[in-house]
Amino acid sequence: MNLKQLYYFKRLSETEHYTEAASSLCITQPSLSHAISELEKELGVALFARQGRNVKITQNGKRFLPYVEDALASLENGRMILQKNGAENKENIRIAFIYTMGEYVVPQLINKYSLSPECHNVTFSFTQGTSLTLLQELKAGKVDLAICSYIADEPDIDFIPVIQQELVVVTAKDHPLARLYEHEVDLVETIHYPYIYFSENRVMTPTY
Protein backbone atom coordinates (compact mmCIF):
# COMPACT_ATOMS: atom_id res chain seq x y z
CA MET A 1 0.00 0.00 0.00
CA ASN A 2 1.38 3.40 -0.93
CA LEU A 3 0.29 7.02 -0.76
CA LYS A 4 -0.64 7.25 -4.42
CA GLN A 5 -2.99 4.30 -4.11
CA LEU A 6 -4.78 6.02 -1.23
CA TYR A 7 -5.12 9.26 -3.19
CA TYR A 8 -6.41 7.33 -6.19
CA PHE A 9 -8.89 5.38 -4.08
CA LYS A 10 -10.24 8.55 -2.48
CA ARG A 11 -10.65 10.28 -5.82
CA LEU A 12 -12.35 7.30 -7.45
CA SER A 13 -14.74 7.03 -4.50
CA GLU A 14 -15.72 10.66 -5.15
CA THR A 15 -16.33 10.29 -8.88
CA GLU A 16 -17.21 6.59 -9.18
CA HIS A 17 -15.97 6.93 -12.74
CA TYR A 18 -12.54 5.71 -13.87
CA THR A 19 -12.11 8.08 -16.81
CA GLU A 20 -13.12 11.15 -14.83
CA ALA A 21 -10.98 10.19 -11.84
CA ALA A 22 -7.95 9.43 -14.01
CA SER A 23 -8.30 12.74 -15.83
CA SER A 24 -8.47 14.73 -12.58
CA LEU A 25 -5.41 12.86 -11.27
CA CYS A 26 -3.51 13.49 -14.53
CA ILE A 27 -2.86 9.78 -15.06
CA THR A 28 -4.07 7.23 -17.58
CA GLN A 29 -7.12 5.07 -16.90
CA PRO A 30 -5.06 1.83 -17.05
CA SER A 31 -2.67 3.28 -14.42
CA LEU A 32 -5.60 4.04 -12.15
CA SER A 33 -7.15 0.61 -12.70
CA HIS A 34 -3.84 -1.09 -11.91
CA ALA A 35 -3.33 0.93 -8.71
CA ILE A 36 -6.84 0.13 -7.44
CA SER A 37 -6.43 -3.53 -8.37
CA GLU A 38 -3.14 -3.76 -6.45
CA LEU A 39 -4.73 -2.07 -3.43
CA GLU A 40 -7.65 -4.50 -3.49
CA LYS A 41 -5.25 -7.45 -3.70
CA GLU A 42 -3.35 -6.23 -0.66
CA LEU A 43 -6.53 -5.64 1.34
CA GLY A 44 -8.12 -8.88 0.16
CA VAL A 45 -11.48 -7.22 -0.58
CA ALA A 46 -13.16 -5.48 -3.50
CA LEU A 47 -13.40 -1.72 -3.01
CA PHE A 48 -15.46 -1.01 -6.13
CA ALA A 49 -18.02 -2.90 -8.18
CA ARG A 50 -18.57 -2.17 -11.86
CA GLN A 51 -21.97 -0.89 -12.97
CA GLY A 52 -21.89 -0.52 -16.73
CA ARG A 53 -19.37 2.16 -17.61
CA ASN A 54 -19.23 3.41 -14.04
CA VAL A 55 -18.21 1.88 -10.72
CA LYS A 56 -19.88 1.83 -7.34
CA ILE A 57 -18.02 1.84 -4.06
CA THR A 58 -18.65 -1.36 -2.11
CA GLN A 59 -19.51 -1.68 1.58
CA ASN A 60 -15.90 -2.61 2.26
CA GLY A 61 -14.84 0.47 0.32
CA LYS A 62 -17.17 2.62 2.43
CA ARG A 63 -15.69 1.16 5.61
CA PHE A 64 -12.16 1.83 4.38
CA LEU A 65 -12.82 5.37 3.09
CA PRO A 66 -12.95 7.24 6.47
CA TYR A 67 -9.58 5.82 7.47
CA VAL A 68 -8.08 6.90 4.16
CA GLU A 69 -9.55 10.39 4.48
CA ASP A 70 -8.23 10.73 8.04
CA ALA A 71 -4.79 9.49 7.03
CA LEU A 72 -4.53 11.86 4.07
CA ALA A 73 -5.81 14.78 6.15
CA SER A 74 -3.22 14.05 8.85
CA LEU A 75 -0.45 13.91 6.26
CA GLU A 76 -1.58 17.21 4.77
CA ASN A 77 -1.63 18.83 8.20
CA GLY A 78 1.88 17.54 8.84
CA ARG A 79 3.08 18.91 5.52
CA MET A 80 1.63 22.34 6.26
CA ILE A 81 3.18 22.44 9.73
CA LEU A 82 6.61 21.54 8.38
CA GLN A 83 6.36 24.14 5.63
CA LYS A 84 5.27 26.76 8.15
CA ASN A 85 8.17 25.89 10.45
CA GLY A 86 10.53 26.02 7.52
CA ALA A 87 9.33 29.52 6.65
CA GLU A 88 9.67 30.64 10.26
CA ASN A 89 13.22 29.29 10.42
CA LYS A 90 14.33 31.31 7.42
CA GLU A 91 16.71 34.13 8.17
CA ASN A 92 15.44 37.57 7.20
CA ILE A 93 18.03 40.17 6.23
CA ARG A 94 16.79 43.75 6.53
CA ILE A 95 18.45 45.98 3.94
CA ALA A 96 18.13 49.76 3.83
CA PHE A 97 19.41 51.83 0.93
CA ILE A 98 19.34 55.34 -0.47
CA TYR A 99 17.01 55.96 -3.38
CA THR A 100 19.69 56.03 -6.07
CA MET A 101 20.67 52.45 -5.19
CA GLY A 102 17.19 51.06 -5.77
CA GLU A 103 17.14 50.95 -9.54
CA TYR A 104 20.23 48.90 -10.35
CA VAL A 105 22.65 48.28 -7.49
CA VAL A 106 20.41 46.55 -4.95
CA PRO A 107 18.58 44.37 -7.53
CA GLN A 108 21.93 43.25 -8.95
CA LEU A 109 23.29 42.41 -5.50
CA ILE A 110 20.20 40.39 -4.59
CA ASN A 111 20.18 38.61 -7.94
CA LYS A 112 23.84 37.67 -7.56
CA TYR A 113 23.29 36.40 -4.04
CA SER A 114 20.22 34.40 -5.11
CA LEU A 115 22.48 32.28 -7.32
CA SER A 116 24.57 31.15 -4.35
CA PRO A 117 23.74 27.91 -2.47
CA GLU A 118 23.34 29.79 0.82
CA CYS A 119 20.33 31.80 -0.35
CA HIS A 120 17.64 29.10 -0.12
CA ASN A 121 17.02 29.74 3.57
CA VAL A 122 17.17 33.55 3.45
CA THR A 123 14.53 36.20 2.81
CA PHE A 124 14.97 39.95 2.42
CA SER A 125 13.04 43.01 3.50
CA PHE A 126 13.81 46.46 2.15
CA THR A 127 13.46 50.08 3.16
CA GLN A 128 14.59 53.32 1.53
CA GLY A 129 15.60 56.69 2.90
CA THR A 130 18.38 59.24 3.16
CA SER A 131 21.84 58.37 4.42
CA LEU A 132 21.25 60.05 7.78
CA THR A 133 17.91 58.33 8.42
CA LEU A 134 19.30 54.96 7.34
CA LEU A 135 22.23 55.37 9.70
CA GLN A 136 19.83 56.08 12.56
CA GLU A 137 17.84 52.93 11.73
CA LEU A 138 21.05 50.91 11.62
CA LYS A 139 22.09 52.17 15.05
CA ALA A 140 18.63 51.42 16.43
CA GLY A 141 18.82 47.83 15.16
CA LYS A 142 15.90 48.30 12.78
CA VAL A 143 17.97 47.18 9.77
CA ASP A 144 20.91 44.81 9.38
CA LEU A 145 22.86 46.79 6.82
CA ALA A 146 22.56 50.09 4.99
CA ILE A 147 23.79 51.09 1.55
CA CYS A 148 24.36 54.82 1.86
CA SER A 149 26.93 57.59 1.62
CA TYR A 150 29.93 57.63 3.90
CA ILE A 151 29.38 59.71 7.03
CA ALA A 152 32.39 60.89 9.01
CA ASP A 153 32.79 60.66 12.78
CA GLU A 154 30.81 57.45 13.18
CA PRO A 155 33.23 55.19 15.11
CA ASP A 156 30.57 52.55 15.83
CA ILE A 157 29.81 51.97 12.15
CA ASP A 158 31.97 50.10 9.64
CA PHE A 159 31.82 51.67 6.18
CA ILE A 160 32.85 49.47 3.25
CA PRO A 161 33.05 51.13 -0.21
CA VAL A 162 30.91 49.29 -2.77
CA ILE A 163 30.30 51.85 -5.53
CA GLN A 164 31.13 55.36 -6.71
CA GLN A 165 28.58 57.58 -8.42
CA GLU A 166 29.42 60.47 -10.70
CA LEU A 167 27.67 63.80 -10.23
CA VAL A 168 27.19 66.20 -13.14
CA VAL A 169 25.96 69.73 -13.59
CA VAL A 170 22.79 69.93 -15.66
CA THR A 171 21.72 73.20 -17.27
CA ALA A 172 19.46 74.43 -20.02
CA LYS A 173 21.02 74.61 -23.48
CA ASP A 174 20.96 78.41 -23.47
CA HIS A 175 22.46 78.74 -19.97
CA PRO A 176 25.68 80.79 -19.80
CA LEU A 177 27.60 77.81 -18.42
CA ALA A 178 26.45 75.63 -21.30
CA ARG A 179 27.63 78.22 -23.82
CA LEU A 180 31.01 78.71 -22.16
CA TYR A 181 31.83 75.12 -21.23
CA GLU A 182 30.84 72.42 -23.70
CA HIS A 183 32.11 69.31 -21.90
CA GLU A 184 33.08 70.17 -18.33
CA VAL A 185 33.01 73.04 -15.89
CA ASP A 186 34.92 73.82 -12.70
CA LEU A 187 32.65 73.95 -9.68
CA VAL A 188 34.11 77.35 -8.85
CA GLU A 189 32.45 78.70 -11.97
CA THR A 190 29.03 77.53 -10.78
CA ILE A 191 28.89 79.21 -7.36
CA HIS A 192 27.27 82.35 -8.74
CA TYR A 193 24.21 80.47 -9.97
CA PRO A 194 21.29 79.09 -7.93
CA TYR A 195 21.28 75.33 -7.41
CA ILE A 196 18.69 72.63 -7.28
CA TYR A 197 20.56 70.36 -4.92
CA PHE A 198 20.13 67.56 -2.43
CA SER A 199 18.35 68.42 0.80
CA GLU A 200 20.39 69.03 3.95
CA ASN A 201 19.68 65.57 5.36
CA ARG A 202 21.36 63.91 2.40
CA VAL A 203 25.07 63.33 2.62
CA MET A 204 27.52 63.50 -0.26
CA THR A 205 31.04 62.18 0.17
CA PRO A 206 33.80 63.56 -2.09
CA THR A 207 36.29 61.16 -3.64
CA TYR A 208 39.81 62.14 -4.56
Widest sheet: strand order?
4-3-5
- Structural class computed from helices and strand pairing: alpha/beta
Radius of gyration: 33 Å
Query: Could you estimate the helical fraction of the residues in percent?
Result: 40-55%
Q: How many helices in DSSP terms?
A: 7
List how many beta strands DSSP finds. 5
Largest sheet: 3 strands, parallel
Q: Regarding CATH, which class of the domain at 3-87?
A: Mainly Alpha
Span between N and C termini?
A: 74 Å
- Approximate strand percentage: 5-15%
| CATH fold node name of the domain at 3-87 | Arc Repressor Mutant, subunit A
Mean pLDDT: 85
Uncertain residue ranges = none
CATH architecture of the domain at 3-87: Orthogonal Bundle
Domain HTH lysR-type: 1-58
Family: Belongs to the LysR transcriptional regulatory family.
GO molecular function: DNA-binding transcription factor activity; transcription cis-regulatory region binding
Protein name: LysR family transcriptional regulator
